[in-house]
Write a structure and sequence with these properties.
Rossmann fold, binds fe (ii) ion, alpha/beta, about 10% strand
């Protein structure tokens, strides 16, 4: 995968493998497509950031990174040196762990009185969310809690500082989306979004060279998050022909690259494919929505400190099996969803199928095999109790899952992965 730029949707659609155009949407009625950021993709594109900053006339920026991996790399030193050479003043902040209200409010408090031209976030999904939230809160007063969905009472304005997102993992797709997930774990915990279409970043710079150092456990968790996002948006009741094509392309790329990069993180070509798959998952989730696994992830992630990708990964196989069983037993359901699950199985495995049931089985098998082979931890590893799971099951929304699930169904899903 070589370096390329995308500045509009037509160039993105042209890259879709026509062999993957297997199932079109459930309806060709009305739908809308959210804007995407400008994309600068390819090995070495991190070096373009200083030039971007200069070209856009920014002289003072906030640079938000994670704890250590990027900071220990040669790319950080080169970036800092290049910014200094260009006399670009930068305020560096670290965002470690989940993006909490305290992290965001703390950074904003320190820089609020400085004339900031732009925010650059370089890191995993939580770092990008911190950058997105800081860019927004520099243009609003009060605490970010006031503006969170389901928590605060104020409406976000959608105004923000210019924002460039540079992912160093292949998972959340936050570099494309309009929300920042803010987390408080434990009593009165929540995992809620600051959301507005105005918060879609201006530019995403995806450089697979920054991702090669991602360790196997993080590669597994983030990769399973991306796969979950692609699959849930593909079978979403809000899916469109646009998201179907991109989701299938992402699943195909993830199917061939994800297993390889776990044990060979230096495979730059496969890292690039997985990074692109994660990017596509951000577009598809933003436009088609997600399903019960993400509904559960936001509830369980607020109860115990389980990483987002791990909770998605651990539930994905069982959830897919449960949904398919429900669809098979529901005679009134349109079988197009079962066809879509089968096509997703082919995209992930490369194996063609004789019947829809066989295609669905191939999908369930590959997901369960990954969970087993890559030793994705169960919920008990993070201290979940029976009481937690019952509370979690009652609070979980199924989002855009293409069948109904009862609280008992969701509880069984959790207990199967305890
Ligand atoms: Fe996710």
């Amino acid at each position: 995968m070589s370096t390329f730029w995308i500045s509009n949707y037509s160039s993105l659609i042209l890259k879709v493998d026509i062999n993957l155009t297997l199932v079109q949407s459930l309806c060709m009625d009305k739908f809308t497509i959210s804007p995407i950021p400008e994309l600068i993709f390819g090995a070495g594109t991190i070096k373009k950031i200083p030039e971007l900053i200069t070209d856009r006339g920014y002289s003072t920026i906030v640079l938000i990174t994670g704890g250590s991996s990027f900071l220990n790399s040669v790319y950080w030193h080169e970036l800092a040196e290049s910014l200094n050479k260009r006399s670009i003043k930068f305020y560096h902040h670290r965002s470690i762990g989940e993006t909490s209200p305290e992290v965001v409010d703390g950074i904003v408090k320190e820089i609020k009185d400085i004339e900031i031209d732009a925010v650059i976030a370089i890191g995993g999904g939580t770092v990008l969310d911190t950058g997105k939230a800081v860019s927004a809160m520099l243009c609003m007063s009060g605490s970010i809690i006031d503006y969170l969905e389901g928590v605060g009472t104020k409406e976000p304005t959608g105004l923000r500082k210019p924002l460039i997102c540079v992912p160093t993992t292949s998972g959340t797709g936050s570099e494309v989306t309009k929300n920042a997930v803010i987390t408080r774990v434990g009593k009165d915990g929540f995992k809620k979004s600051l959301r507005h279409s105005g918060y879609i970043p201006d530019t995403a710079v995806i450089d697979p060279l920054l991702i090669v150092s991602c360790p196997p456990d993080l590669t597994i968790a983030t990769g399973l998050d991306a796969v979950t996002q692609l699959l849930e948006s593909y079978v979403s009741v809000k899916a469109t022909p646009f998201t179907d094509n991109l989701a299938l392309q992402g699943l195909k790329l993830a199917g061939r690259s994800f297993p390889l990069i776990i044990f060979n993180g230096n495979d730059i070509e496969r890292r690039a494919e997985m990074a692109y798959a994660a990017y596509l998952s951000g577009i598809t989730l933003a436009n088609a929505g997600l399903g019960v696994v993400h509904g559960a992830a936001s509830v369980l992630g607020a109860i115990r400190p389980i990483p987002h990708g791990t909770v998605c990964g651990t539930l994905l196989g069982s959830a897919t099996e449960l949904i398919i069983k429900k669809l098979l037993s529901d005679n009134s359901t349109d079988s197009v969803y079962l066809e879509k699950f089968s096509h997703a199985g082919t995209a992930l495995t490369g194996v063609k199928y004789e019947s829809t049931e066989e295609g669905c089985r191939n999908l369930i098998d590959i997901l369960n095999r990954w969970i087993q082979d890559y030793r994705v931890p169960g919920l008990s590893s993070y201290g979940f109790t029976e009481k937690d799971l019952l509370f979690g099951a009652k609070s979980t929304g199924i989002k855009n899952t293409p069948t109904t699930l009862s609280t008992e169904d969701i509880l069984k899903l959790f207990t199967d992965r305890i």
